[in-house]
Amino acid sequence: EVLETLHRVQCVAFDKTGTLTLGRPVVTAVEPVAGFEKRLLPLAAALEKNSAHPIAQAIVAAVPQAELLEPVREFQSIAGEGLRGRVGPIPADDAQVGDAQAGDAQVLVGSLEYLQSSGCTIPASLLARSEQWREQGMTVVAVSIGSQCAGLIGVSDPVQPSSRETIEELHRQQGQVVMLTGVYASCSRTC
């Protein structure tokens, strides 16, 4: 019966993640602030290791196991915004990123808005970079250490090889094709 009525379908809706994309996000760009080049990803991954979110898993996978920092204390996950926790001890060569007395660092990982609402000032150059990345289809993850912005991480979910031709064929045959996604509209345009 479904096949008999398929010719009357006027609109096809797809969920983006795992349908049009591979469903396996990967870190595709990193933009550290000067002084945080070596520890941006390891500090972010230390918190992200406590999350099952696919973007968190991509960030953890981007860091060699030997570079992961532990332990994480005072961990908090704020739904829809990001993560917060104390990471350390920080290796001596990176003492500038930690609390000199405690030997650890307060780390926030999440959206730019989350970091800004927590008192972190995002440099204009990173705000511009985040817009570029979003236009390229990346999800932007911001990281702060203490109250200082440490940088950005760009995460992408590669498009399935057959997605473009499938969508083009459906346009020809059916008319309207829409994509359902929880990310910025610019991310959906890359499919």
Structure summary:
With about 190 residues, the chain is an alpha+beta fold.
Looking at this protein, list some descriptive labels.
191 residues, alpha+beta, two-stranded parallel sheet
Any chance you could write out the topology, listing elements then pairs?
Elements: H1 2-5, E1 11-15, H2 16-20, E2 26-32, H3 40-48, H4 54-61, E3 72-78, E4 82-87, E5 105-110, H5 112-117, H6 124-135, E6 139-145, E7 148-156, H7 163-174, E8 176-180, H8 185-189
Parallel strand pairs: 1-8
Antiparallel strand pairs: 2-7, 3-4, 4-5, 5-6, 6-7
Counting DSSP H or I runs of 4 or more residues, the number of helices is 8
The strand count comes to 8
Largest sheet, strands/sense/barrel: 6 strands, antiparallel
User: Would you identify the regions where 5 or more consecutive residues have pLDDT less than 50?
Assistant: none
Describe the structure.
- By secondary structure, the chain is of the alpha+beta class.
- The chain is 32% helix and 27% strand.
- It is built from 8 helices and 8 strands, in the order H-E-H-E-H-H-E-E-E-H-H-E-E-H-E-H.
- A hairpin with a 3-residue loop joins strand 3 and strand 4 (82-87).
- The protein is elongated.
- The model has no long low-confidence stretch (mean pLDDT 83).
